[in-house]
Amino acid sequence: MKVKWSQLVLKIVVWLFAEIYLTVLGLDNLADYGEFVFQYKALVTIADASTTLDSFT
Asked: Is the pTM of this model over 0.70?
């Protein structure tokens, strides 16, 4: 597997800059909360699907 180091470093630098910028603006917590909400919804959906599948057996 070839790693494109220049692209990897660029993505890391952009991500790090975005994290610092959002933290300074106070929006990083809002973004983290949004990720939490969407992750929670996904887990609830998976749990519902799992429960539905269990009822068929």
From this structure: no
